């Protein structure tokens, strides 16, 4: 079985995996980082979104071995200790989550959006979230949270 | 109002763990030494299992055991029970076929589990399951209720003639016939309530564990009601007494009804764990969720409304075919009956109503409650037929509704279909929604859209729902095989902080915050001194769980009752400490005070005294401050409201664009408006999803055509607009908080409003009705069919 090494949330990690192991399985099962969720088996729901080398990626669409040497950030690595990332704070402040299952993927996806488009409009946010399903919130407060999170991220720079 | 008290927009206590990825969902839990289960599921909708050969599969790497029905039968494992007995018109009980945990010789829907493989890894279990050889004798299948009731249709259960489970009715048929005989106008409508897949984002999962030393079983499961699962699984399926069975429902990623029921997989992992003496885990793939989570709706209905010459409703006649799927899911039978027929008065004074529901078995996944459960079906049909009547009579649909609303001073109001509404004001919520939507000036917007070649329409719907099913005695008389009360335990600790144990379960509703607000407000202590515990039969004495918007009306009332007991005991302790008469002690803002004096003890001091009873009325009073209450409501609660939707349709593509969605709701008193708004948003999205996008489709052979998110259209962020909400409260008169519940409202009112708007938009073409979902194709075809023929054609 191949060994794979990468940096996850700032720490060097490695593990022996079956070649077919998906990144999301490596994160959840090998590393015990269960904040990244699995909501589907057709790469539709976005519950599994993580950041790989600066881009948001559905971690169910990529093999662990493809991430050799990559720099991966998961939802667990977003906050600075007990200080939440502005996007996490915005989701809490604006009730952008209910059951919380889609939330890690939503937040990771939203952070990437704002990195690429610092002042997204409501339509741009809704369009960006096409690959992230939420069954609880009707997206209303997720959109509000991302608008607020974008402002807060801008202010922090 | 304090910053965290009743009525405050308190941000949620539970969110820190969720936004940091530290929630604990069932699939996040791994037990030492655990094995995995994978289920071999039927690829056929109806087949006889002539032979199941597991020889090759059993030799595959990592495989520990393969179980089929025969293994369960040897252990006397029972079938999955149905929790509600319905009687037919003729008094006979419903046909109640067995619901085996693994198929007993016949499979009856695609996804019906046949064998359970237990292996070291999930992948190994799955590969072995694929290596099991089954010799199927494929039988003819039927998926449509209208076909299933015909003579000669494939029979799913020999005991259910014409596949009929029951033929139920409610109401006074003679009175309705008389009303129709004197009617000036009768409006008739046939409509379909489309089948839906609940699709909570977290797929179901379960872990079973058996402790050889103590004989205790533990089940972690994605459930909305762990105590109900313990009761059903322990008593009916596995015969494990409650004291040896713990059921934990940790963080659960959405339910919407689909996680109420007791499922085969829960029993299988619990039973298998004891067999192989190692923990056994199962997590569904989304594809499995599509073919094993109970689905929703699926009605075919014919309705007739009788009106007098002024548009007053005289009578309503409804006949519904309801699809139950292949087996009776836990509460399936109550949905198209007592949660549907009883709601057919809606917000109106219709004096005579008669409804008959024929419930039908088909070769499809079982159907049970999905957000709203029966009430969306009732509201949709009523609001469509009222709009159609308004159109036929040339009366403005808002005006026709107002002419028939139950007057504001008519409460308590007895409907002809069993319910007694305690409070409401349907005029105000409708006016609020119409005003917010600028209904008065709509025609100008229609014209403007027409000038751009678009069809614009506006639609409204009012709704009423019955929440917090109760009282238990009434539910029992109607066939419920469970009580429907709720429990709360308020444990005051020696230093005055509080742990609240609730029998409700939060899978997104935010109970850890709302209930903490309630406790903090009532006891006058800071909200961070309150911890809410739910979802574990090992910690919470009992509970009926969360569904039917019952948590606050029923569970919240139980909390109030327990808090009242705490305060009453606190007064006794305070009276002793303050050397005053108990009757003179007032409790306010966290202080026990002798009335009219400044002599007082804080809540914390009383708590400490209760646990350090040095100066204490020990002769009359036990030490400690820990109170439990059960609350059985006197009546349902009746949230109600109005939704207005404006749409614009592009005739070239058939795409419906939502221009605005307005909701005005009456939920009684609101504890946390932020959380309530979130519930409405989510409900609206699901209702709009039903109206525009979602449809669970089987082909004639019973294959599920919409078995993934590629094929089943879930509402996405760019399918929806932001919503406009308002509330107007009339308080519930029979529970201590005056609360009504808010979880389902959005999904109940919105389908009618969307479809009324679409029909209104296309009314210039003469369109009278369109069935859901109003997909671009369906709209485009409707437009083509109604378009005036060009001169050249
Ligand atoms: S798990 Fe659904 S997209 Fe990755
Ligand atoms: S918060 Fe539950 S799925 Fe988004």
Q: What is the structure about, briefly put?
A:
Chain A is of the alpha+beta class. Chain A has five helices and five strands; from the N terminus they run ββαβββαααα.
Q: Could you explain how this protein is built, in words?
A:
- Chain A is of the alpha+beta class and about 160 residues long.
- In chain A, a hairpin with a 2-residue loop joins strand 3 (about 50) and strand 4 (about 55-60).
- Chain A has helices at about 25-30, 85-95, 105-115, 120-130, 140-155; strands at about 5-10, 10-15, 50, 55-60, 70-75.
- Chain A has a five-stranded mixed beta sheet, sandwiched between helices.
- By secondary structure, chain B is an alpha+beta fold.
- Chain B folds into three domains: about 20-140 and about 200-255 and about 260-290, Aldehyde oxidase/xanthine dehydrogenase, a/b hammerhead (Aldehyde Oxidoreductase, domain 3); about 375-465 and about 635-790, Aldehyde Oxidoreductase, domain 4 (2-Layer Sandwich); about 485-630, 2-Layer Sandwich (Aldehyde Oxidoreductase, domain 4).
- Chain B contains 20 helices and 28 strands.
- Chain B has a seven-stranded mixed beta sheet with strand order 3-5-1-12-9-10-11. In chain B, strands 7-15-14-13-8 form a five-stranded mixed beta sheet, sandwiched between helices.
- In chain B, helix 10 (about 375-395) runs parallel beside helix 19, helix 15 (about 510-525) packs parallel to helix 16 and helix 18 crosses helix 19.
- At the A-B interface, helix 2, helix 3, helix 4 and helix 5 of A face helix 1 and helix 18 of B.
- The structure holds FE2/S2 (inorganic) cluster (2 copies).
- One FE2/S2 (inorganic) cluster binds near residues 58 and 60 of chain A.
- One FE2/S2 (inorganic) cluster binds near residues 39, 40, 43 and 48 of chain A.
Class by SSE composition of chain B: alpha+beta
DSSP helical segment count of chain A = 5
Q: State the low-pLDDT regions of chain A, or none.
A: none
State the helix count of chain B: 20
Spatial sequence of strands, sheet with the most strands of chain B: 3-5-1-12-9-10-11
Chain pair with largest interface: A-B, 57 and 56 residues
Q: How much is the radius of gyration of chain B in Å?
A: 28 Å
- Outline of chain A: globular
Q: Residue share in helices of chain A?
A: 25-40%
